[in-house]
DNA sequence: TGATGTGAATAACTTCACAGCG
DNA sequence: CGCTGTGAAGTTATTCACATCA
């Protein structure tokens, strides 16, 4: 009967939403709120306050009934749950147009992510520094990733190289991959892959955006 | 009792997977397969063949029992269901680093998407042609979008401009938005928004990639 | 009173098991 | 006989309703 009451089944979607709550809380924090209600937190998100409280309940919550939540405490709590309370090193593999755009993406820093290295196989790019990140030879990936203890990678190589590079990443100790290559990665259990497949997303959108055209 | 047997409830996830099936079928088509089984189609995806057949069943399927599916026919069928059987015009709004990377993204063309225009408010960019797409003044967006009849937009403007720009897009007739700005868009019912929030996705990954660290 | 926290009810989605048919 | 197609069963996730407590 420890404080972890029933972690036996936490919905995946709950985990995904925690990041959104964190973003909302940061915004409220900047606006100098110190205590907020569940409705305030979810008011800018397309999420009900019921859903928010339910999500929080899986982790043992810290609200005060009749009052709300301490912004600072809840941020720390969510950061700890997600594992982003300390700096989180990530690498970018494949410094093409998309990869280099991600090197410059400002949204990572706010959540304790830091891109510590980038890799490519193009001699013309290796050794250069983009957005404060040095582009390394992909042949040196294992050494760099191991020595820095990197656990997360953003994969932006061409589709036909993705599987091979992903396997190498896993061999170096990487445990999570944000995959922008439009191909499915086949990796051992325990390695987490999140596919960001823009063509598929667009098709998904197309389907819905064409419904009810009569209206 | 028409052919649409029970579209009363098609899972959203089914729609999302149709795009993946399409990608798999294209690959098989290139390998000169003309008839394939559900297992072949899903073998490169992390999806069971049961799931595939169930998904297809919502639309009235065209397999032959004991044989499989005609690759060409199934591709046409899925394209029609998704609404990507004819060329689908899209625009990119916000030609920063991410926006210009997406202008060059090769994966759209294979699925009949064509970026017909891009918009920015930076005088230095307006009038230039990147990746074969002319950058237009965002002030002219309404005119261009209306005259071309564009229904889909990729939004890559800064977060604090996103809501305002999105509203303008809707006013121009856009019905679906692929939103890369890390903010929630509040738009009328009937407008579909798909958020691609990279920091949130990374946090999601972080959570899972830290589980079972003892193993 | 006015918020949180949570079991119970409902809804959405997936898996199973097998009938149907070429 | 093999693979498709689909109800039924099972699982996962969301919503509701309300007890709880400062």
Task: Kindly state the percentage of residues in helix of chain A.
Answer: 25-40%
Largest interface: A-B, 58 and 59 residues
Look at the structure and name the CATH superfamily of the largest domain in chain A.
NAD(P)-binding Rossmann-like Domain
What's the total count of β strands of chain A?
9
CATH top level assignment of the largest domain in chain A: Alpha Beta
Order of helices and strands of chain A: HEHHEHEHEEEHEHEEH
Instruction: Look at the structure and give the mean pLDDT of chain A.
Output: 94
Predict the CATH topology of the largest domain in chain A.
Answer: Rossmann fold
- Ends distance of chain A: 55 Å
Count of helices of chain A?
8
Chain oligomer state: homodimer
Regions with little confidence, pLDDT below 50 for 5+ residues of chain A: 1-7
Integer count of domains of chain A: 2
Helix-strand makeup class of chain A? alpha/beta
Question: Strand-residue fraction of chain A?
Answer: 15-25%
General shape of chain A: globular
Strand order of the largest sheet of chain A: 5-6-4-3-7-8-9
């Amino acid at each position: 009967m420890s404080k972890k009451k029933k972690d036996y089944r936490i919905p995946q979607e709950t985990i995904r939403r925690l990041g959104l709550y964190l973003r909302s809380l940061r915004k409220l924090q900047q606006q100098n709120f110190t205590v907020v209600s569940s409705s305030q937190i979810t008011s800018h998100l397309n999420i009900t306050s019921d859903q928010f409280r339910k999500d929080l309940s899986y982790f043992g919550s810290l609200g005060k009934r009749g009052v709300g939540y301490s912004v600072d405490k809840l941020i720390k709590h969510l950061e700890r749950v997600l594992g982003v309370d300390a700096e989180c090193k990530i690498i970018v593999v494949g410094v093409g147009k998309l990869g280099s755009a991600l090197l410059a993406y400002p949204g990572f820093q706010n959540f304790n992510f830091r891109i510590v290295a980038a890799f490519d196989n193009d001699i013309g790019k290796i050794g250069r520094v983009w957005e404060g990140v040095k582009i390394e030879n992909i042949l040196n990936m294992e050494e760099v990733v191991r020595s820095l203890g990197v656990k997360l990678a953003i994969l932006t190589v061409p589709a036909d190289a993705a599987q091979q590079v992903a396997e190498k990443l896993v061999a170096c100790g990487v445990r999570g991959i944000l995959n922008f290559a439009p191909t499915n990665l086949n990796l051992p259990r325990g390695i987490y892959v999140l596919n960001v497949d823009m063509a598929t997303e667009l098709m998904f959108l197309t389907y819905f955006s064409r419904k009810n055209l009569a209206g």
